[in-house]
Design goal:
The longest helix is centred in the N-terminal third of the chain and has 50 residues, at about 170-220. The protein contains 48 helices and 25 strands. Helix 10 (about 330-375) packs antiparallel against helix 11 and helix 30 runs parallel beside helix 36. It is α/β, with parallel strands linked by helices.
Length: about 1500
């Protein structure tokens, strides 16, 4: 064994992948050790170490063999509940730090020697495990050698003793004593073999998971790997490899022990013994062929399981959208189709597995039948000594062969998993060796660089097309995308690249605020990714000087408290933290959250609004105090007032002196940027100060003019404004307006430039749409919806929550924002015990994620009943009957052999033990043919029973597995949203991956082996009782001890397995969280912190995992002692009762006694392990019976007609609701009427309850009070599918699924290609999709990462257009879209959804300015609800204040002509009483 932690330091020319993976955490510091340090617990008499290492490292030989370090835990588990603190910490030798580093070093050396292509992960595993495997094999050989001596020589000598007329009693006693010594030796060596294997298993699991996790942290991109696949690799494949070392020490024993067994059999019985040995040996290739077939089936199963888990993960991540679109049943059906295919393969695999096990249990009687029949039929005599010695030999051989199927299965799965792990390890890593710019004053320098994203490789493309075939049922031709090749250094790996950014030449000076703008898909986010080194540099490169903070366009939020998300591992500084919170406008949000900033945030920020998530992401970046800030459109997710505050106080003040790259679609902020970059089609179209670009660049100037009201604002008036530099004047709103208009672009100049804006190719269509009259009414506002942004003169500056008299800009007298000077600005608050208690209370109040359930006590009988019912009561009864008949046939065969030997030549002979026996030759018996026929008939019957029993068993167990999965899957996706809010995705996936795999494979295998051993043990004791009835009295005492140990054992193994399940979820969730936030983690250089946290979680889990194995060894060692006593008592009884028992029956009793010795320990361990495996059934059943469904099923006859809703009227009557019990109301008594075809704008501060209105209408949460009517129908009285299928929503966070573009727009093939292309045209995505090689059938990767966020939103909008519902909710649907595309989209929305009732939730106020009415939400209440005109006319209204803060020209709307007023307002219909109450001006 290589010394742990003996990593080498590489030279500059060596691969960087050989670096030390992880630092050693204090709790698991690396200890100096030798190659044989792990063998110290096997020192016979070992003094207790002065410094404790771990529970199982401190004991000696007997403590290890009997697992005595667990005795106190066994009693604790039996008497009360076992906790994690009772088990202590794990061994440093088993830690992930030591083993992952060592495995990675071996892998690197393998790659260096063989190259990436020929590197074998199996060879790596061999080198990692070889010392332990060699030791285990050596001890295992000693174990079976002792077993061989007992089963052959001693059995023969004992049978000769019983057949002798007057043997010496002391000879018999000496034989029993010798057998006892050898049996003890066999027991100890067997324990040592399995203990060495178990320790190796824990280490290799830790090594694989640790190395794989660190590899993921270093990847350039996931390419064809999905989050679900990688989670499955960690959760399943690592354990498949880890399962092999457990029994690998016995793998070579079959060929090694075959020679002495064969030689002894020939010695006892002559050449005819080779016939029986040949039958047994012939079983090996049969088993091998079956094993190969099982491996092939398992490989196919794993692929389907990967796809199933991926789809399940995707459904869990998109469950809100799936529920809103009423897609649960189609998606569930699709997953169930995959599950049915998987189950079919699993059933065939399970059948072959059962055949392998059953054949091993019948090899002894079949070999005996063939050997003895041939021996006697050729005229040879057969004595009891010969017969039962040969039976004992065959039994020993069957024990060796019994290990073969499980080892073959484990080896097959190990090979598959090794290939999957290699596919991860050969993926290319990020280049972390950054370059520094040439100039000291330069922060970022990109010189004529071209950047590209990785395309799917050939294997990945084939896999995705296979998945697409699974999902859509169609196969598309493989068209090669336009890519370039990146050749690896060794010339073996070729990576396809898709160029995205071209000839980028950009230098950003330190302290510069750079604004980046451009249309959707122009490459804005890709530019940030290039700076973060997440893209490949085809030519040129990026040089960065300084630490980076990154705010992603879609905020990455951890499943932790708000404070932990902001701190991101940094120490808490109250002053700095307070400044950060105020700069991000989070104070009021903290007051609304149940636990303040100690409130736990659900996965992906599920209990936060989009704006809250983005501001927490901004706070994280500010608190990190970095040199360079990369902000990817953070202002689109917040309302105008908050956006204004963040820009002025966060970006302009708090980040003064920092280098800031701000990607934005809020073009009003570009005037305040030091420089602006305009991107178009992946190239820099313009670069420079805003003022110069307005003068010199037509594209930029046209974009800004389109952002304004170029139709209504005369260009000549622009010339009248002063062109004072922004850097030398105090900022006010007039200056913003001035700067936006500072370039005198007359219409004549524009005609001369003849240059279209960024979406030139789309403009002809948009021009027609945007100016088209609809029913005689003009939409002058939406013709140019960005009309007159920020054009109020002499606007008062709003009061800032953070009053500062000094600036943080570098040229101002105040230093930069750091933790050192934060106390200068805000007084350090006193932290005392009371405050700590308050924080603890807040943490408890804000706890969101519920503790994972853990059933107390033994596995409830209801779980067994559930499994049996899922299998079928009749099927279960038939299977048990088949096991009984099969075992009875074997017992009958042995008794028939005993009787046949007693009959001899068929003549009456001497009396022995009260029975008449013949002394003649069996070959002379006149009924020889009859005896042989019956004897041979039992063999044929056993073979038939093998096939029948195996088929029935596999069918019954897989039926149970299939029905359990179906029930739990439907139960989960029928649950209310509160379940998904409070349950981590990893915990749910654990049910559908690990627990399902246990029920599919592990449980049937365990039940099969347990039932086989149980029936054979019962048969053995029945046979012994027939021979020696009074022996049962002694056995009864031993069985009392046996059952006491069993109850103790089932308590400890059950508790340890439950603790193991609980410890598994956190690290799986951490893996999922890491994969979703890799870019942010890389940007903040938090790799080491996340690895350290992961190591801690894994070390805790590995400790429990290993102790769970030790629980089995604890009882097995003690049960084996009981079995040994039974064997000794049995043989001693035969010796003492010599002369009173026939030699044939004595041989039968001794043979069965030896079988019991090995059978009892396996039986009790298999029984307890099977019960422990039933904890997976228990966990699945918990989700079946304990989850709360969304709403009770409603009979179809109570649903409205298919044409409902025909009008789209919505009435809210005193609507109040909360997301979960014991939480405050988020909507409070809202009452209003929304008329048919009315366009309602919903605005308000982040967290005011805007999106909650949509949640209530879709009934994702049932109201606490009040009613919602749609076209007069109470929606609470109809089924959820009837309601949601008639509504549409374009969500704030765009959701795309893995598949094709067409699949994402039309998952269930309801529309034609022409309809889909029409929808894409209307959202201006048709050109982008036509540019793809496969058009509609182009692949969409996980989360739609191969499309920009804006493109994803447009695709989601096209999906809603196809749905064409009567009621539509737009929840920040255009937040990530540039202003010009937004203009076109708004025109499309008003045209396409003219006949729909539309609720638009928006932060961009121009989006709602042409709404028929606007609802202003404030703290869950509708504070205002009236026409925009009326609200703007009231200067004291909240809406007017918001419009003023956004800089929109109020006079434009107040002076609006009658023909510009929406139809709903022209009609001048009187308001209802509810509307009057709701409207608070």
């Amino acid at each position: 064994m290589d010394r742990p932690g003996n990593e080498r330091h590489l030279g500059a020319d060596e691969p960087k992948t050989a670096a030390i993976l992880v630092e050693h955490t204090p709790g698991h510091a690396q200890r100096p050790s030798s190659k044989f340090a792990a063998l110290k617990p096997f020192i016979p008499f070992r003094p207790k170490p002065t410094v404790s290492v771990s529970l199982f490292d401190d004991v000696g030989f007997f403590g290890t063999i009997f697992s005595s370090f667990l005795t106190s835990s066994v009693w604790k588990a039996f008497k009360s509940d076992l906790t994690f603190s009772d088990l202590g910490s794990g061994s440093p030798y088993d830690s992930i730090e030591v083993n992952a580093n060592r495995l990675h070093r071996i892998w690197t050396e393998e790659v260096d020697r063989k190259g990436v292509k020929d590197a074998s992960m199996l060879r790596v595993f061999w080198r990692f495990l070889r010392t332990r495997l060699i030791v285990a094999t050596s001890i295992g050989l000693a174990c079976f050698m002792t077993y061989f001596v007992v089963s052959t020589f001693f059995v023969q000598w004992l049978l000769q003793y019983t057949a002798a007329p007057n043997p010496s009693l002391w000879t018999g006693v000496a034989l029993v004593a010798g057998m006892f010594v050898l049996e003890v030796t066999r027991s100890f060596t067997f324990r040592a073999t399995t203990l060495v294997g178990a320790r190796a298993s824990a280490r290799v699991i830790a090594a694989i998971i640790g190395m794989g996790y660190h590899k993921v942290m270093r990847l350039q991109s996931l390419k064809d790997k999905t989050v679900g696949e990688l989670v499955n690799l960690f959760a399943s494949d690592s354990f498949r490899v880890g399962g092999f070392p457990n029994d690998a020490g016995f793998l070579l024993l079959v060929p090694l022990m075959m020679v002495p067994i064969t030689a002894y059999a020939v010695y006892v019985m002559g050449p005819w013994a080779l016939l029986g040995i040949g039958v047994a040996i012939l079983l090996v290739p049969v088993e091998m062929l079956l094993g190969v077939k099982i491996m092939q089936l398992r490989k196919r199963c794993v692929k389907i399981a990967d796809e199933r888990v991926r789809m399940t993960s995707e459904m869990l991540n998109s469950v809100k959208l799936i529920k809103m679109y009423a897609w649960e049943k189609p998606f569930i059906r699709r997953v169930e189709e995959l599950r049915a295919r998987e189950t079919k393969l699993l059933q065939f695999s399970g059948f072959l597995q059962s055949v392998m096990i059953a054949m091993l249990s019948t090899v002894v009687p079949i070999a005996s039948v063939i050997t003895f029949s041939a021996h006697v039929m050729t005229g040879n005599d057969l004595t009891a000594t010969q017969a039962f010695t040969m039976v004992s030999c065959f039994h020993l051989l069957s024990l060796l062969l019994m290990l073969t199927p499980e080892l073959i299965r484990q080896l097959a799965e190990c090979v598959i998993s090794a290939k999957r792990l290699k596919s991860l390890m050969i993926m290319e890593e990020r280049d972390t060796n950054g370059q520094l710019p040439d100039g000291k004053k330069t922060a970022i320098d990109i010189k004529f660089a071209t950047f590209a994203w990785d395309a799917l490789d050939v294997a990945g493309k084939e896999k995705r097309q296979e998945e697409n075939t699974t999902v859509t049922g169609t196969v598309e031709e493989d068209t090669e995308p336009p890519t370039v090749a990146a050749q690896a250094d060794d010339g073996q790996i070729e990576t396809k690249l898709i160029e995205t950014l071209f000839d980028i030449n950009l230098t950003i000076a330190k302290g510069t605020l750079l604004g980046v703008c451009g249309s959707v898909g122009a490459g804005k986010s890709s530019l940030i990714s290039a700076i973060l080194n997440e893209m490949r540099s085809v030519k040129g490169g990026v040089a960065v000087d300084g630490d980076i903070a990154y705010v992603a366009q879609q905020a990455w939020i951890q499943n932790a408290t708000v404070r932990d998300n902001i701190l991101l591992g940094k120490p808490f500084d109250s002053s700095k933290y307070e400044m950060t919170v105020q700069a991000c406008c989070l104070k009021q949000d903290f007051e609304q959250l149940p636990g303040g900033d100690m409130t736990e945030i659900g996965e992906r920020g599920i209990n936060l609004s989009g704006g809250q998530k983005q501001r927490i992401s901004l706070a994280r970046a500010l608190y990190a105090d970095r040199d360079i800030y990369l902000l990817d459109d953070p202002l689109s997710a917040v309302d105008a007032h908050v956006g204004e505050h963040i820009f002025r106080h966060y970006i302009k003040k708090m980040l003064r002196g920092k280098t800031v790259l701000l990607v934005t679609h809020q073009l009003q902020y570009l005037v305040d940027c030091d420089e602006v970059v305009l991107l178009k089609d992946g190239r820099i179209a313009a670069k420079g100060p805003h003022r110069r670009l307005m003068t010199m660049n037509a594209e930029y100037a046209e974009m800004i003019q389109n952002y304004l009201d170029e139709d209504s604002t005369d260009a000549s008036t622009v010339n009248d404004f002063d062109l004072t530099s922004a850097s030398t004047r105090p900022h006010d709103e007039s200056n913003t307006r001035l700067f936006l208009h500072q370039t005198p672009m007359k219409r004549l100049d524009k005609a001369r430039w003849s240059t279209r804006s960024l979406n030139a190719s789309k403009r002809p269509r948009s021009a027609d749409r945007s100016t088209t009259a609809t029913n005689g009414r003009k939409f002058s506002i939406h013709a140019t919806p960005r009309l007159v942004r920020r054009r109020l003169n002499n606007r008062e500056k709003p009061e800032s929550p953070l009053q500062r008299t000094t600036s943080i800009r570098y040229h101002q007298p105040v230093p930069a924002f750091t933790s050192n000077n934060a106390a200068m600005i805000l007084e350090q608050p006193t932290f005392d015990i009371d405050e700590q208690k308050e924080q603890e209370k807040a943490l408890q109040a804000g706890n969101l994620t519920e503790q994972e359930e853990m059933q107390i006590g033994k596995v409830k009988f209801a779980n067994y009943v559930t499994y049996i019912k899922s299998s079928g009561i009749f099927s279960t009864t038939v299977v048990l009957l088949m096991f009984t008949i099969s075992t009875a046939t074997t017992v009958f065969s042995n008794f028939w052999l005993s009787n046949w030997i007693e009959q001899g030549d068929g003549k009456q002979g001497s009396v022995n033990g009260g029975n008449t026996t013949s002394t003649g030759s069996m070959a002379d018996n006149p009924d020889l043919v009859f005896y042989v026929s019956v004897f041979g008939g039992t063999a044929v019957l056993m073979l038939l029973l093998v096939v029948l029993k195996s088929w029935l068993f596999s069918k019954a167990t897989l039926a149970a597995s299939y029905h359990l999965y179906r029930k739990v899957f439907r139960s989960v996706f029928s649950s209310s949203m509160s379940f998904f809010d409070t349950t981590p995705t990893g915990r749910i996936l654990n049910r559908f991956s690990r627990d399902t795999d246990n029920v599919d494979v592990g449980l049937p295998l365990g039940v099969n082996i347990m039932l086989s051993n149980l029936w054979q043990a019962v048969a053995a004791f029945v046979a012994i009782a027939v021979v020696l009835p009074y022996f049962l009295a002694a056995v009864a005492v031993l069985f009392v001890l046996f059952f006491v140990l069993y109850y103790l054992f089932q308590a400890i193994i059950r508790e340890l397995r439950r603790l193991e399940n609980i410890r598994r979820s956190p690290w799986l969730c951490h893996v999922t969280e890491t994969l979703n936030g890799l870019t942010t983690i890389h940007a903040f250089k938090m790799d080491s912190a996340f690895i350290k946290k992961f190591n801690g979680l894994m070390n805790d889990y590995i400790n429990i995992f290993y102790l769970a194995h030790m629980g089995g060894h604890w009882v097995a060692a003690r049960v084996e002692m009981i079995a040994l006593v039974i064997t000794v008592v049995m043989t001693l009884t035969v010796v003492l009762l010599h002369g009173s028992i026939p030699a044939t029956q004595a041989g039968l009793a001794i043979t069965y006694a030896l079988q019991v010795s090995g059978m009892l320990q396996f039986m009790i361990q298999d029984a307890a392990n099977t019960q422990a495996a039933f904890t997976s059934v228990e966990r699945l059943r918990y989700y079946i019976t304990n989850l709360t469904a969304e709403a009770p099923d409603v009979p179809e006859d109570r649903d409205p007609e298919a044409t409902w809703p025909s009008q789209g009227d919505i009435q809210l009557h005193n609507l109040s609701f909360r997301y979960r019990e014991n939480l405050p109301l988020v909507l409070k008594g809202i009452s209003c009427n929304i008329r048919s075809r009315e366009k309602i704008g919903i605005v308000g501060r982040t967290g005011s309850g805007k999106s909650s209105l949509g949640v209530a209408i879709f009934r994702l949460v049932e109201p606490a009070e009040g009613t919602i009517y749609i076209d007069g129908v109470d929606i609470s009285k109809i089924s959820l599918s009837a309601l949601r299928s008639k509504l549409s929503i374009i969500p704030q966070d765009p959701v795309l699924f893995v598949g094709t573009v067409r699949y994402n727009l039309d998952p269930f093939n309801q529309y034609s290609d022409d309809q889909i292309w029409r929808a894409l045209e209307r959202v201006y995505m048709d050109d982008a999709i036509r540019a793809l090689d496969l058009k509609l059938h182009s692949l969409v990767v996980e989360n739609g990462e191969n499309f920009s966020v804006g493109e994803r939103q447009l695709l989601c909008m096209a999906r809603a257009l196809l749905r064409n519902s009567k009621i539509l909710i737009l929840d920040e649907a255009t937040a990530a879209i540039d202003s010009e595309t937004d203009n076109l989209i708004q025109a499309t929305i008003h045209e396409a959804f003219e006949d729909c009732t539309m609720l638009t939730i928006a932060h961009r106020l121009n989006t709602v300015m042409t709404s028929d009415r606007v609802m202003v939400m404030d703290d869950g209440q509708s504070s205002e609800f009236d026409t925009p005109r009326a609200l703007l006319a009231n200067k004291s209204s909240r809406f007017a204040a918001m419009v003023k803060a956004a800089g929109i020209d109020v006079t434009k709307y107040i002076s609006m002509e009658t023909d510009d007023v929406p139809e709903a307002e022209e009609s001048n219909q009187p308001m209802s009483e509810a509307e009057v109450e709701c409207t608070k001006l």
